[in-house]
Amino acid sequence: MKFTEGGICAAKGFKASGTYCGIKKPKASNQNPNIKHKNDICLFVSDTVCNTAAVYTQNKVKGAPITVTKSNLEKSGNKSIAVIANSKNANTCNADGVEKAQRMCQLVAEELGVPEEQVIVASTGVIGLTLPIEPIEKAVPVLAKGLCYNKNLEAATAIMTTDTVTKEYAVAFEIGDVTCRIGGMAKGSGMIHPNMATTLNFITTDCAISSELLQKALNEIVKVTYNCLSIDGDTSTNDMVCLMANGLAFNEEIVCEGKEYETFKSALYEVMANLTKMLAKDGEGATKLVMCQVSGAKDMDTAITCAKSVICSPLVKTAMFGADANCGRIMGALGYSGADIDPLKIDLSYKSAKGCIDVCRGGYVVEFDEEKAKEILLDDEITIMVNLNSGDSGITAYGCDLTYDYVKINGDYRT
After folding, report:
1. What pTM value is reported for the model?
2. Active site (catalytic) residues
């Protein structure tokens, strides 16, 4: 398995495009016609129909695109061929939301000559603003005309909201003697606390694999990647992970579990884990990527519960921002996690590129060099290492520090 360029266009037969259509009017200071605005809508399409799997937010308040996409995949038998996605407006909590999400699918279907139920729609941005459909109606022909096999970056840019960087990752891997590829793009910076899915994430592959195994693999890998991510504890209304497989690598289709399925799952994990890490590092206002690596858990669920409790703790997050080696906050987060653990078996360490230092052994704080600990925690990538010493399971959860800028960004998000 090796990294490859191309994001959602790394796999054979996927082309993309993106453009700025003006879904959200620019601020008055940016209305100079010579200013190039960031893309706010994208389209990507497969050369042939794809087996498709998806997971969605478990927030009871769901964006209209979630409703429409779920309905379309049910009608099509989990088949899709195109995805249209916009930023700046979530199309959520709007009386005409479903109608407009359906209209977006209809526009793509008419332009490409494909069935409407094979079009996936997604939106992200401000909740509660009416989605203007006119700019989208004008943009779809432009997007269709601009489709190209190397325009993945145009699409990745179009789904950004408060993101500061695009997020793409792809790998090549072997199924038998056939080289397959899988790649994805993601957006997300704030309102991230996954529950079945997180943010907007699109993954494409040219590997031939059945819809049933595609969904099974996605469910399994989501649990140990995106669902082990938290930026601020808020589960979005529009979260979606969509996985499309067009089979154009022409490997023998994977229809049962075994060696080939495990290879595919490993490749999917590689892509989703790296996208998860990128999402965590780009948290709103964040200055540090903070990871919690739990080992020695009696089972995977215990490891996940403990790791996420630490990553989600506002007190831990602020301690990481201030480079304060306050391990009491971590012990507290483990204690209230709800996991069945023995506090007197817990070992804690901090690790970064600057070194590693033990701060707790057998549930008790040990003497350590505060200056050395501070040096370690001043790095921009920190791992909180927790050994529960009660089994063989482990997991890494991903998050970031909590800074003054997070409040600034979200205090005036709409204005």
Report:
1. 0.87
2. 198
